[in-house]
Design goal:
single chain; alpha+beta; Alpha-Beta Plaits; MutS, DNA mismatch repair protein, domain I; Dna Ligase, domain 1; 3 domains; 5-stranded mixed β-sheet; 4-stranded mixed β-sheet; 19 strands; disordered C terminus; binds 2'-deoxycytidine-5'-triphosphate; binds magnesium ion
């Protein structure tokens, strides 16, 4: 029998809100929510006292990105409208989101975890998987070292689940939040996993949860006791089989250390619905801003794109997308903006605009001066002078055509 793997799932606690509390430590212990960019930032008055925006006074379309555990106790969670949340927690403080700051902390926490356990899969802004199997120490002390390293690098706490696979570890990291460590062995699945609601399995979303409930299946244990045939009848072969395996805690997916992003996008919901002609200036500035942000994202990921797309959601909630594929890959805001203009010209504007989005896809690796110091892009010419080597860039690979190294 082969020994089980040891896979950790690390998830930051109330991530955006916790970063904000580093900036405003005086708010610790209070219900705080992080809204969108449009929320006014706290200000200090003449006496030096901080003035915060309370949820109760909020008017607009902003959404809660996350909330502190104190706000969650009042019923306010990620994804809820700020105005709806205001009814539950009018006294809660609402702060503007600062995505740049969250990305910075995200990088730091991942680097710190990687220093302890280098096999890492990046799962987004605040979560990673780590493969601990080949490491010497015992599992609990590794988990504690990871937490300590993350805390020293960021001042933030995280929760960790460790089990034989990604599916179980993801469930476990959520069992003792915040600041928890949950270790699980295969023999404990029935006792500790089966009593949980089926939706705790990553991949069972609201629709599947509802369908399972209509079959009288609420817990993971009930799902595990249901025959594969019944599941296949209701969910199709692939999903039905996967549901059965997942409920039995089976998952042999590897920890993938490198994944090329397929696309990058930015979108913004407008505070009020805008008219394509009457609000032209405002629309232009919002689109310019989205293009700049997509260009920055590409730069950060060291990618260029060949395809640029736009998304428009109208006041009647209908969505239209258009895209344009260019002959060569690029990543600068001006070229992206030109491609976006081309896409926008192909839209029939039948209603006011509620949301705008810009997407870059068909991504290839980009090499920019100074961004890849480890690469030898300089080649010695026959006459002894140094010339810049011709660089061919393809998806996921970098080749200098005349590299003397
Ligand atoms: N996020 C968001 N919109 C959502 C859900 C999440 O903007 N609908 C952002 C804000 C969160 C971050 O992603 O801080 C991470 O999401 P999590 O689901 O891990 O939530 P938290 O880290 O905030 O809380 P928890 O302690 O439950 O992990
Ligand atoms: Mg989190």
């Amino acid at each position: 029998m082969t020994t089980d793997r040891r896979i950790a799932h690390v998830d930051m606690d109330a991530f955006f809100a916790s970063v904000e509390l580093l900036r405003y430590p005086q708010l610790k212990g209070q219900p705080v929510v992080v809204g969108g960019r449009g929320v006014p930032a706290p200000k200090q008055d003449d006496k030096g006292d901080w003035q915060y925006t309370r949820l109760g006074g909020y008017v607009g379309r902003g959404v809660v990105t996350t909330s502190t555990y104190e706000a969650r106790a009042l019923g306010v969670f990620s994804g809820m409208g700020l105005m709806q949340s205001a009814k539950l927690a009018p006294q809660a403080i609402v702060l503007p989101a600062d995505f740049e700051a969250y990305r910075g902390y995200s990088r730091r926490f991942k680097a710190a975890a990687c220093a302890v356990a280098p096999i890492m899969e990046d799962r987004g802004i605040d979560e990673i998987y780590l493969d601990l199997t080949a490491l010497e120490s015992n599992t609990l002390s590794l988990a504690q070292r990871i937490k300590q390293a993350v805390f020293e690098a960021t001042g933030l706490s995280c929760s960790i689940g460790v089990s034989p696979n990604k599916l179980l570890s993801k469930i476990c990291s959520d069992l003792d939040k915040p600041d928890g460590v949950t270790l699980l062995q295969r023999s404990e699945i029935a006792d500790r996993i089966w009593p949980l609601p089926a939706r705790k399995i990553n991949g069972i979303g609201p629709k599947a949860t509802e369908k399972l409930a209509s079959l009288g299946i609420y817990t993971i244990g009930e799902l595990a006791q249901t025959s594969t045939e019944i599941l296949v009848t209701h969910f199709g072969r692939q999903m039905g089989q996967w549901l059965h395996e997942a409920a039995h805690g089976q998952d042999d997916r590897a920890v993938i250390t490198h994944r090329d992003p397929k696309s990058l996008s930015r979108e913004t919901t407008l505070e009020t619905n805008l008219h394509v002609k009457h609000d032209r200036a405002e629309l232009t500035s919002r689109i310019d801003d989205l293009c700049r942000r997509v260009a920055l994202d590409l730069q950060q990921k060291q990618r260029h794109c060949k395809t640029v797309g736009v998304k428009v959601k109208f006041a009647d909630f209908s969505v239209v997308t258009r895209d344009l594929t260019l002959p060569t890959a690029m990543g600068d805001a001006t070229t992206i903006r030109e491609a976006v203009s081309d896409c926008l010209k192909r839209i029939a504007w039948h209603d006011r605009i509620r949301l705008l989005g810009v997407r870059a896809s068909n991504l290839v690796a980009a090499i920019e001066e100074g961004s890849a110091p480890q690469l030898r892009l300089w080649a010695h010419r026959a006459d002894g002078a140094v010339a810049q080597g011709e660089v061919q860039v393809q998806e996921g690979s970098v080749q200098a055509s005349d590299d003397p190294a």
